[in-house]
Amino acid sequence: MIKNIVTLVCLFISMQVSAQGWKVTFQRSYNDKVQSAEDPLLVFADKDQTIITTDRATQSQAKYPYETYYIDRNNAAYFKQMNFSADKQLVTKDLALLGKSTYNLTNETKVILGYTCKKATTSVNSNTIELWYTDELGVQGAPNELGQQLGFVLEYVRNGNTKITATKAEKIKRIPNHVALPKFDEVVDGPTYQDIVWKSRFIHIPIFQDEQINFVDQPKQDSILRFASGTVILKKVKVPKLDTNSQAFVQLIEKSNGDAYDRTGSVFMIAEDQATSFLDGMKNGMQTLPKYSNGDGKEYPGMVRTAGFSPVYELMRFFTPFGVSHFNDRLTLKGKTWQDSSIYRQDVSEFLSVMSGKEVYIGTYIGNYDKGGHRVSLELTIHPGSSRMASPQVMSIFNTTNVMEMGGQTYATFFSEEKGLEISFDLPEDTKNVQLRYITTGHGGWGNGDEFVPKENTILLDDKVVFSFTPWRTDCGSYRLYNPVSGNFQNGLSSSDLSRSNWCPGTITNPNYINLGDLKAGKHTIRVKIPQGEPEGSSFSFWNVSGVLLY
């Protein structure tokens, strides 16, 4: 009788112990240096569930947004919950996640917090993962999704240098109600969850969505401003006040809507730092803007800075390929598939100081004479916490890309004169580490035009050469599959294969950042010299160059 009572008591105690849960605290380290400033990671576990959270989250002190992870062991389900605020959450569920990884179980052991742990290894995205897990806690858990069914993972090691290590293991009677797996009223699918969470991490400003850029007598008028017979579209967008260490990107998606040719394109922003802006000329006629003249007998409106006028900031120079998307069915190449669009994405962080907290006009130009033209989608994304610093001061000096080509702005052929392009500007105070953000591309002619002939660009500051180089692209053949109606020659080459003066059909032209050093307050002069080729019959050469001072 006594023996039976003792047995029952022992069984009851055993059941009580097994019914208990655990609270395990983890710390992160890199190269064995503890990241002490981080919120400690907490894992709660019992036989029914595992919760991965942080110390501050359990006390409602975590900084939003943050994620919490739940494993429902009875139903082999894995939940991720993104907490955007106290009253806004998003949840997704994965029934298969826990069984996705395979592990190599080894005989190696080591002791962590007094518990004997075994070693298992796996690989995730070419990263080598070591997991040290124990069976001695009687429950399963881990500081992330890996190893959740091995036992209780007390240390996670990635590539030998990044670690998550248990520092404390406490028995608890039960998992607190405010931490335990809740009942979720609404669950979204994984791709939806990832998309919403990803977009929540940065500022997303849509500008154009599948807008047409074409050549018509009377372009339609709606919320988008259209100029130059529809070849230029413009929109006012509001940019919130930004941290100085943010990083910004513009992204453009382009498809042919009927135009088969490679065309010059530009994403630009109206400079509004002076009394007259480029937008005034777009509305009132380009001839109302200040004109540049260097003795070649022509006048070039809206291209250079003057007292009272600033040309546009060129954010991105791009070139459309030969008919991507619209003409994909015109030629079939064995073993090759045409791309369905061109995507251009570029860092434009240096312009954040003239965007932050303002309403700005951002536009896109594609030079074409086609009724169908092109379709484009444009967005601006701004990402916090980057190490890339925006320039505190930005000054537009010149932009010879004639974005209002179909609205009376002429091609920049003035490099045929010795003077080339010469602009004076005033600095209000002594400045340090001045840079010239310079974009250049050569155009025109056929085989002997500047598009296909390397030409040296020389930049002079106050009559002294500060930079000289020959802009040239030899990688144009890499973009063949963006060019379904590129001309093909008897020698087996395509027109889109040919090397060009700093551009290829389907590419961005990257800026050059030219160091001008420390400059004194007052007047300075920048001069750009390019040995522009002579006209050949009706063909002529010209250069699109843009320059912005960063200081």
Please characterize this protein's 3D structure.
The chain has four helices and 34 strands. It is mainly beta. The protein folds into two domains: 177 residues, outer membrane lipoprotein receptor (LolB), chain A; 349 residues, Peptide-N-glycosidase F, N-terminal domain (Jelly Rolls), CATH 2.60.120. Strands 1, 2, 3, 4, 5, 6, 7, 8, 9, 10, 11 and 12 form a twelve-stranded antiparallel beta sheet that branches. The termini are far apart. The N terminus is likely disordered.
> Structural class given helices, strands, pairing?
mainly beta
SS element count, helices: 4
Specify the biggest β-sheet: 12 strands, antiparallel
Whole-Å distance between the termini?
92 Å
The shape is elongated
What is the C-alpha radius of gyration, as a whole number of Å? Answer: 31 Å
Write the layout of secondary structure elements.
Elements lengths: L1 H18 L1 E10 L2 E2 L6 E5 L3 E6 H4 L7 E7 L4 E9 L2 E7 L9 E9 L2 E10 L2 E8 L17 E7 L3 E11 L17 H11 L2 E11 L11 E3 L4 E7 L8 E10 L7 E6 L6 E2 H7 L6 E2 L7 E2 L7 E2 L2 E7 L22 E6 L11 E8 L7 E10 L10 E6 L21 E7 L3 E14 L12 E5 L2 E6 L38 E2 L2 E8 L2 E8 L11 E10 L1
Parallel strand pairs: 18-21
Antiparallel strand pairs: 1-2, 1-3, 1-12, 3-4, 4-5, 5-6, 6-7, 8-9, 9-10, 10-11, 11-12, 13-25, 14-15, 15-24, 16-23, 16-25, 17-22, 17-24, 19-20, 22-31, 26-34, 27-33, 28-32, 28-34, 29-30, 29-33
Keywords: Disulfide bond, Signal
Protein name: GLPGLI family protein
Pfam families: N-glycanase_C, N-glycanase_N, PNGase_F-II_N
